[in-house]
Each structure stands twice: as C-alpha cells, then as structure tokens.
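name: query_chain
kind: protein
chains: 1
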Amino acid sequence: MMDWTALRLSLELAAWTAALLVPLGIVAGRALAHRRFAAKSLIEALIAMPLVLPPTVLGFYLLAVMGREAPFGRAFEAAFGQPLAFTFAGLVAASLIANIPFAVQPIQRAFEAIEPEIREAAWTSGLSPLRAFLEIELPLAWRGIAGGVVLVFAHTLGEFGVVLMIGGAIPGETRTAAIAIYDRVQAFDDAAAGALSAALLAIAFIATAVLFALGRPLRERRRG
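structure:
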C-alpha cells in the first residue's frame, strides 16, 4: 500500500527547499551573470560541487557541521531548543545546500541570455536598477527561474544519500519517499515500494516534460 506519510513529507521538503532556495538563486544567478570579479570561477566551482560529490560524502560533511558535537549544531540547539540533525529542519538545511546548483545554474544562464543593450536601454529610459530588474530582467528570465523551481523540486523528491545521512529514517519526521522505498525493498514489500516508486516516476516525468516545454522557445529562437 502507498506510504502517504512519506510521500507527503517528501513533497513538503521539496516545496520548502524550492521556496527558500530559488529567491537566493535569483540573487546569486544574476550576480554571477552580470558581474566580473577575480574569484568568480572559484565560486562557480563551489556552487557546482554538489553535482559531482557523492551524496554520502556531502551528507557526511553536513552531518559533521550540524551534529550536536559541532559548534554550529550546538549553537542551533541552544537557540531553538532542538537539534538540527535528524529533524525536518535539518533535512531542509541539507536540501538547500545539496540543491544549490539546480537553482543557481539555470537562473544564471537565463540572465546571461539577456542582451546587455536591453538593460542599458532600460537604464537610459529612466528606470532605476531595481525597476529595471523587476520590470525587464525578471520577465525575460522567467523560463530559467521556472526551470530552477522544477529542478530543485524534482531533485529534492528523489534525494537519498544526503537525506539518509542527515535525517535517518524517522517515520513522520525524516522518512521521505526515497528512504521509504529502500526500507520497503529491504522488507520484501514490493507492492508498497512499487506504489511509491510509481508516484515518484510520475512526478519526475511531469517535471522533465515541463523542463523541455520551457526550453523549446529558446531552442526555436536560436534556430531562427
């Protein structure tokens, strides 16, 4: 049977991660797209690290920072009265870091695709930098921003290694759909594992279709 609690927890984690990370991705992506500075390549490499690091390695280092024995983990527990590791809040914090490249990179590419002349024309027409950003740049970059939302949401749903390291498998708290599938397979409950897998497969297919739909106008414009 379907583990609705695990699926709901995964959807909540994905929604919180996307809602918190995409605004930060807009700020970081725009800055990387338009500014030139000495450490830019280093920062871009750091942002891309979650793409190439094994999830268990990333999860290990995050656990080392968030654990009760770590200074940051102790400070969080003292401030909020609960530990960060093995809680839903810890999952959100870990997911934010694990999904940084999925938010920043598509948004950065979207801002890079805006011709400099468009921004300059907005400024010379009397728009302030903030109004030019809100009224000109954001509408032009919306496909990349939407793509970032989809990528972050879909990747968070399927994340396994980082979630297992930081959250474990506490039912109703940190046991996401991906963890529940693993547990059901270990318990030889193929029906429950299959139901959850089918749900994640459907969501992944929809997310992929949305990404291709968002990218089609840009590809057609380049061919034209």
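note: The domain at 4-33+44-105+144-217 is CATH 1.10.3720.10 (MetI-like fold).
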